[in-house]
Specification:
alpha+beta, single chain, 268 residues, 29% helix, 12 strands, 9 helices, eight-stranded mixed β-sheet
Length: 268
């Protein structure tokens, strides 16, 4: 392993607090970073009731939850103002080329909290990997391992992730959407000339995929309801050469098995 300090050299460690950004009981910082750099900056601007970032600079790390003891470098911020509501911060050019690319091996701060003295951790960190490009979300996980929230599917489709698109564009199948707020289910299918990718692309743009049962709730609560509550998975997948009637029959089978007509969002 190569020490972090040999690659990311910091002139005065005592001017920094290290920000260990972890799950905040609502979302993962890694998801926020992938979705929007403005959202990620907001993680560094949030103040709360404590003055956590009480030094000139913030050395920000993002919990890389796909792997154990890994942190993604999130940039170095200068604290310009310490307002009562939030911090005003500015992303510096220092080591900017490593943002989202440098993966650090470190067990973590060893205590609860998000802000710690940089000098107590800096020299103990090691470089795990330098990615060729800035991290933009997980690689395709295989058809039978899809268990992804709406906002993750949204990011994958809007960013045209080639590995995901290649896989999902070339299969028909039966999929499941679960509303995690109430446990209700919707069983859908993709057949004809449209693969799973094209079908899910419709959900990303509408929130409901033009399905009557889901349209009712999205028209009332908006697409943010889908982002917060909907989870996607594949029940079955088939070659694009498969006869459409088989897909339709399997869709009806899963509706019966999961009782999604009686207790879910399927209305037919």
């Amino acid at each position: 392993m190569i020490s972090l300090s040999s690659v990311l050299q910091i002139e005065n460690e005592f001017d920094y607090k290290v920000h260990f950004a972890v799950y905040n009981y609502e979302e993962q910082p890694l998801d926020a970073f992938v979705r929007s750099k403005d959202e990620w900056q907001a993680w560094n601007e949030w103040r709360g009731h404590r003055d956590d970032f009480n030094r000139k600079y913030i050395f920000s790390l993002i919990k890389f939850y796909p792997q154990q003891e890994r942190w993604l470098f999130g940039g170095i911020y200068e604290v310009l103002e310490r307002n009562q509501e939030k911090y005003t911060v500015k992303l510096l050019d220092l080591h900017k080329e490593f943002i989202g690319r440098l993966l650090i091996k470190y067990p973590g701060p060893g205590a609860r909290g998000r802000s710690f003295l940089f000098e107590n951790h800096y020299t103990k960190m090691q470089i795990s990997q330098i990615l060729e490009e800035q991290y933009s979300g997980e690689t395709f996980c295989d058809f039978d391992k899809i268990e992804h929230s709406f906002d993750k599917i949204e990011h994958i489709i809007k960013n045209q992730r080639l590995d995901w698109k290649t896989a999902l564009l070339n299969v028909k199948g039966v999929y499941l959407i679960v509303d995690k707020s109430n446990g209700k289910k919707y069983v859908g299918s993709a057949y004809g000339d449209s693969g799973i990718w094209s079908r899910w692309e419709c959900y990303v743009h509408t929130g409901h995929g033009l399905n009557e049962g889901l349209t009712e709730i999205i028209s009332l609560a908006g697409i943010d309801y889908a982002r917060k509550n909907f989870q996607f998975s594949l029940l079955e997948f088939y070659s694009m050469r498969t006869d459409d009637q088989l897909i339709i029959d399997r869709e009806q089978f899963w509706k019966r098995v999961l009782c999604s007509n009686n207790y879910g969002y399927n209305l037919n």
